[in-house]
Amino acid sequence: MSRISQERKESLLRRYGNRINGANGPGEGRPGGFRGPRGPRGGMGVGKPKNMSSTINRLLTYIGRDKFKILFVFICVLGSSVTNLGGSYILRPIINNLVAADRTVEEKINNLAIGILIMISIYIVGVICSYLQQRIMIGVSQNALIKIREDLFRKVQKLPLKYHDTHTHGDIMSRFTNDLDSVGEMLNHTMTQIFSGILTLIGTVILMFITNWILAVVMIVTIPLLVQVGGMIGKLSRSYFVEQQQALGAVNGYIEETVTAQKVIKVFCHEETTMDEFEFLSDDLRSKQMKAQFFGGIMGPVMGNLSQISYALSATVGGILCLTSNFDIGGLTIFTNYSRQFSRPVNELSQQMNTIYAALAGAERVFDVMDERPEKADTSEAIEICSEAEPVRRGHKVKGEVILKNVTFGYIPGKTVLKNINVEAKPGQKIAFVGSTGAGKTTITNLINRFYEIEEGEILIDGINIKNIRRDSLRRNIAMVLQDTHLFSGTVRENIRYGRLDATDEEVVAAAKIACAHTFIERLPEGYDTILEGDGANLSQGERQLLNIARAAISKAPILILDEATSSVDTRTEKYIERGMDQLMKNRTTFVIAHRLSTVRNADQIIVLEHGEIIEQGTHEELLEQGGRYYQLYIGAVELE
C-alpha cells in the first residue's frame, strides 16, 4: 500500500507532470532539458500550430533553396509509385497467359519468362528511385536544418539579456533539440511519404477502375468506414500519447532532481520517501503507457482487418463477375491485391498528421524566437572606443571616468528598480556598492554594460553617453567577474585566454599569477593544458572563480566590474585574491559589489543602496563617522538580507 498521501500525489503530478519539450523541465536554467518521448510513428505529441500557413511558407523558403533537388526527389517518388503499381499490374497478363486454353505450354513458358523479366526490370527501377529519393531528400532536409539551426543560434546571440532573463535555458535549448528534431523528422521522411501515399492512393483507384469499375465502386463504398475508424483510433491514440509524455516527463524530472540532490536526501533521511514517490510516478507512467501503446498498436491490426473485409467482399463480387460477365482471372487477382493494399496509404496518411502537427508546432516555436526583437541597433553616429593599452585600434582612448547622472530604471514598465542614481568614478578609482539583496547593485552594472537601456538620466564614459558608443566596443572595454562562474569545455589556458583571444602564453601565466591561480593550476595533471568539462566540474568552486578572475586579469579593459567575485572562496583564498586584486585594479576604474564589508574597506567610495536609492555615500572612515546604515552593518547591529 502506498505511503504517500493523495495531496502529495497530486503535488507530484502537478510539479513534474508539466515538464514537456524542455519548458520548465529538468535542467531548467541549464542546457539540455528533458526531451519528451515520441508519439505515434515519430510524433512528438504536441498541439496544432497556431499559424500553419505562415509556418509552412517559412519552411518552404529554407528547403526551396534546393528546389531542383526537390523536383528530382518528387520525380523519383513518382517513379517509385508508378513502378510499384505497374509491377503489380503486370501480373494480369502473366496470369491470363497461364490460364489461357488456346496456348501451348511452350508459349506459356516463354510469355511467363518475358513477364518475369519485365517485372524484375520495373522493380529494379523502383528500387533505384526509392534509393535516390531517400538519399537526396536527406541531404535537402539536413541542409535546411543546418541553416535553420544556424539562423536560430545567430538570433539567440543577438537577443537582449532581457530575453534570456525571462526565458529558461531549458526552454531555449528545446528549440534546438526537440523542435528541430521534429522538423527534421518531417523533412526527412514525412514529405516524401505523404506524396508517395497520395500518388499510390490515386494510382490504385485509377487502376481499380481500369481493371473493373463495378469492383472499384464496391471498394470505394468502404472508404468512409476506414476513415471513420482510423480517425477515432488516431484521436484516442494522440490523447493518450500526450498523457504518456507528461508522465514520462514527470519520471525524468524526478530522477534528475533526486540524483542531483542526493546529499540533501541522505542528510534528512528521505531515501524511503523518495523511493515511494518514484514508485507512484513510475506506476502512473506504466498505466498511461499501456493505454498509449495499446491504441497506438491496434491501428494497424484494425485497419488491416477492415481491409480484409474489403478484400473478401471484392473477391466475392469479382468471382461472381468471372462466372457471369467474362471477367478475367488475372484482373480479379490484381484487383484483390490492390484492395488489400488500399488501406495502407490511407492508414499512413492519417498517421502522418501527428508528425506534421508536431513538426509545424516545433517550427513555429523556432520562428517565434527568430521573430524576437534583437538588441537595438547602434546609431550611425555611434563611435568606437578603445583602451590606452590598445594603440593599434582606432577610436577614443578610454581613460576610465564613469558617471551616472539621475539614472532611473525598471525591468518592468511602471515598476522602478533604480531611482535617481548619481555616481561619479574617476579614472583608476574603486567604487563599492553595498546593500541588501534586490537593492539594485547588479542592475547598475547591467546598465553600464548596456544590457538594458535606461529610462531616464544618462551614463557617461569619459564624458560620452554610452548610447553613442557601439555596444561591442563598449563591452570590450569592460571586464566582469560574476558571482556565478562559467567555464567552457577546453583547456585551462583557453579559458583564461577567453578574456582576450590574442593573449600570449606568457600573458596567460601572468594573469593566473595575478589571480593567485598559478599555484593550483601547476598542480593539475596537465597544468595549463588540463581539459575542463562540465563547467569545470573537476575543480572546486573557489578554483573556478580564480580562473574567472584570471580571465578578467588578462583583459586590457580599463573598466572592471566585480560582482561578488570572492563570495565562492574561503577566507584564506580570499586574502590571496585581495592581494592579486590590488594589482589587477591598478589603473582601472573598478566597481565592486560585495556582501563582505572587509573587501570594500579600501574603496575610494562606498555607496550604500536600499530599495533602488542611494542612502549613504563616502569612504569607509566617513561612513563610520556618520553612524548610519553602513556603521550598523559594520559593527553587526544589522545584517544584509
How much helicity do the residues have?
55-70%
Q: Judging from the principal axes of the Cα atoms, what is the shape?
A: elongated
State the CATH superfamily name of the largest domain. Answer: ABC transporter type 1, transmembrane domain
Round the mean pLDDT to the nearest integer and report it.
79
Unreliable spans: 19-46
CATH names the topology of the largest domain as ABC transporter transmembrane region fold
Strand order of the largest sheet: 8-11-12-5-13-14
How does CATH name the architecture of the largest domain? Up-down Bundle
Strand proportion, as a percent range, falls in 5-15%
Q: Tell how many strands the DSSP assignment holds.
A: 14
Number of domains: 2
Word description of this protein:
The protein folds into two domains: 6-370, ABC transporter type 1, transmembrane domain (ABC transporter transmembrane region fold, Up-down Bundle); 427-450 and 471-635, 3-Layer(aba) Sandwich (Rossmann fold), CATH 3.40.50. The chain is built from 22 helices and 14 strands. The chain has helices at residues 6-16, 52-63, 67-89, 91-99, 105-158, 161-166, 169-211, 213-221, 223-260, 262-267, 271-324, 329-341, 343-370, 441-448, 471-476, 492-497, 505-514, 518-523, 541-554, 571-584, 620-626, 629-635, and strands at residues 385-387, 396-398, 402-409, 418-425, 430-435, 456-461, 464-465, 478-481, 490-491, 531-532, 559-563, 589-593, 605-610, 613-618. The strands form four sheets. The protein has a six-stranded mixed beta sheet with strand order 8-11-12-5-13-14, with helices on both faces. A four-stranded antiparallel beta sheet has the order 4-3-6-7, covered by helices on one side. It is elongated and about 120 Å long. Helix 5 runs parallel beside helix 13, helix 9 (223-260) packs across helix 13 (343-370) and helix 21 crosses helix 22 (629-635). 36% of the residues are buried. A hairpin with a 2-residue loop joins strand 6 and strand 7. With 641 residues, the chain is of the alpha/beta class.
